[in-house]
Specification:
With 574 residues, this protein is α/β, with parallel strands linked by helices. It has three domains: 172 residues, Trna Endonuclease, Chain: A, domain 1; 179 residues, no CATH class; 175 residues, no CATH class. It has 22 helices and 15 strands. The strands form three sheets. Strands 10-14-11-15-9-8-13-12 form an eight-stranded mixed β-sheet.
């Protein structure tokens, strides 16, 4: 008996998965980086709403790439890999949508809650529409020109350097990063969570001791207090002006937070279960009040000895400036290793703090100078206070110092001209030129305010002596711009004279011409041109650089700047 052939099972018809383009892959990786930051900071991602189109008011077709929520805070993210030159075309059409959303917040949220039930599910029922706060975040992988940011001032720009900064911070301090995130987003304490229900002045009262002004030797109006404070309160209120942070680069100075150091200190806390006995150094805002136990304001001018007081600090984010001891404080961070145990220490233990209270009406620039000087005094003798950090602080404290003028010049060169974006600006840019040696050995000698081999010698400004006599900062800016212009012409000619693929700082490229040694050699060569009265225009330098592409730069290593400069001058300009 013949067996009938079995009918093979039908293959299920599955739709082919769309093949991702390189741009799709890059955007997904970028999106993942941003998501990780918000998730580690304590936000939740709202499902079922990403990339879903909506028609607000039946005329604006749009979507958001991601939506995150923290209690009553809703963040709408827009991700883009658009080139910097095309950002305007991408951003301008969205301005109409963003402005409409922000101007009609409650109506927009009501529309979204009806259209996307998953958003409604994520919002606690205790919050009404009027309690919700929204922020639109424009996350661009490439630089956004500041003029474009001015066009849409009511949204926040999560630039790539900001992303990389928050990635480091969230990796290090986990959920405690949310307080700095709130500040970046423009939120105050009264905007977040249950605080929206509280109709009161937010303040934190701490028992402490005040030092008479005459005993502190600080300038008039500055007050010095000591107190104990629990790490949780300090984490909520403090900030650090880290050099690679999201604030203005010219106004920050401290080192990046070190994850390994945080972990080591945290494990020490768990092992010893006791506080550190050395004190934390902080600055306190001018709004800080000094009161006696009855709540009366203390007249600090007449104090002759230390006195117990109540220190009333505004209950707000980013008001206590951590000058020294950031790692000791952030070791208590929320989330991470054995947090149930650390949670108890975070509330129970007390850290000894010395606080300097700013006088009223102090300018922000004066605050920055004060904190930078204090930081330098504490850290200048430590081996880990790096030279680039000291150069940044010098730029704040003494803009007319040699290193400071040179630092200003390298910042200018990094902004415009053939060397733009070639110098390291952010901690993660390992493939760019380091600046410390270029400032110290290349630019400082050529920018000095004396000698026949400096830009000062050939600068034709009739008032240039005011740089020395009057410390004219506006004139200093013009001097730096002049020097940058001259160097840009010189380096443009050099760039034209070499193979295009050699204009790179890639450490793996043996033929690169953008290295500290070559840059310094060229700058020192230019000093010789000034001294020998051999400077010229682009065509002149380009003619002189004939054959430079065959020059053996590999022969010169490390700090052989002077030898390279002499050889370049003798071979091409003598």
């Amino acid at each position: 008996m013949n067996k009938a052939k079995a009918t093979p099972p039908k293959k299920s018809k599955k739709g082919k998965r769309k093949k991702l383009t390189p741009e799709d892959i890059a955007k997904n990786l970028y999106r993942k980086d941003v998501r990780d930051i918000f998730l580690k900071s304590g936000f939740r991602r709202v499902p079922g709403i990403s990339d879903r189109e909506f028609f607000f008011r039946n005329k604006f077709k749009s979507d958001f790439d991601d939506v995150f929520i923290y209690k009553n805070i809703i963040i709408f993210n827009e991700y883009t890999l658009t080139k910097s030159s095309n950002i305007s075309d991408h951003l301008k059409p969205k301005k109409i949508i963003y402005d409409t959303v922000l101007e009609n917040k409650d109506e927009f949220l009501e529309y979204l809650l009806e259209k996307f039930p998953t958003l409604k599910d994520e919002i606690e029922s205790v919050y009404k529409l009027s309690d919700l706060r929204i922020v639109i975040l424009y996350c661009s992988k490439n630089d956004v020109d500041p003029t474009y940011k001015d066009i849409v001032p009511d949204i926040k720009f999560f630039d790539y350097p900001v992303l990389r900064y928050f990635k480091v911070v969230t990796d290090a301090v986990k959920l405690s990063a949310k307080f700095e995130m709130f500040k970046f987003l423009g939120l105050e304490n009264k905007d977040v969570g249950e605080n929206v229900f509280k109709n009161r002045i937010f303040k934190t009262d701490i028992k402490g001791t005040i030092l008479p002004e005459s005993h502190s030797n600080f300038k008039k109006g500055f007050k010095v207090v000591s107190f104990y404070i629990d790490p949780e309160t300090l984490l909520t209120h403090s900030y650090v002006l880290r050099k690679q942070g999201w604030r203005d680069d010219d106004e920050v100075y401290q080192r990046m937070i070190m994850t390994k150091k945080i972990i080591a200190i945290r494990r020490h806390l768990l092992k010893e279960e006791r506080v550190f006995i050395n004190n934390i150094i902080v600055t306190l805002p001018p709004e800080t009040k000094i009161k006696d136990e009855d709540g009366n304001t203390v007249d600090t001018k007449n104090l002759q000895s230390t006195q117990p007081v109540i220190v009333e600090i505004p209950d707000a984010y980013n008001v206590i400036g951590l000058i020294d001891g950031q790692h000791r404080v952030f070791a208590y961070h929320e989330g991470g290793e054995r947090d149930e145990e650390v949670k108890i220490l975070r509330k129970k233990q007390n850290l000894l703090v010395t606080g300097i209270i700013y006088p009223r009406n102090i300018l922000d620039t004066d605050k920055i100078k004060f904190e930078a000087k204090l930081f330098l005094e504490i850290n200048s003798n430590q081996s880990n206070a790096k030279s680039d950090l000291k150069q940044s602080i010098s730029l704040i404290l003494n803009p007319f110092a040699g290193d400071s003028i040179a630092k200003s010049l390298i910042n200018r060169l990094n902004f415009t001209g053939p060397l733009a974006n070639k110098f390291e600006k952010h901690f993660y840019e390992n493939d760019k030129i380091k600046t410390t040696s270029v400032v110290s050995y290349g630019l400082r000698p050529i920018i000095k305010l004396s000698g026949t081999d400096s830009f000062y010698h050939i600068w034709s400004n009739p008032n240039k002596s005011d740089l020395i006599d009057k410390k004219d900062e506006l004139l200093l800016k013009k001097y730096v711009e002049f020097a940058a212009s001259e160097l840009n012409i010189f380096f443009s000619a050099f760039r034209i004279s070499i193979a295009e693929n050699r204009w790179t700082s890639n450490p793996k490229d043996p033929n690169k011409t953008l290295s500290t040694t070559i840059i310094n050699g060229l700058i020192i060569c230019f000093r010789k041109l000034i001294e020998e009265n051999k400077i010229g225009d682009l065509a002149y330098y380009q003619k002189k650089f004939t054959g430079v592409d065959k020059f053996n730069f590999k022969e010169y290593k490390s700090s052989q700047y002077g030898s390279l400069a002499r050889k370049l001058f003798d071979q091409f300009f003598a």
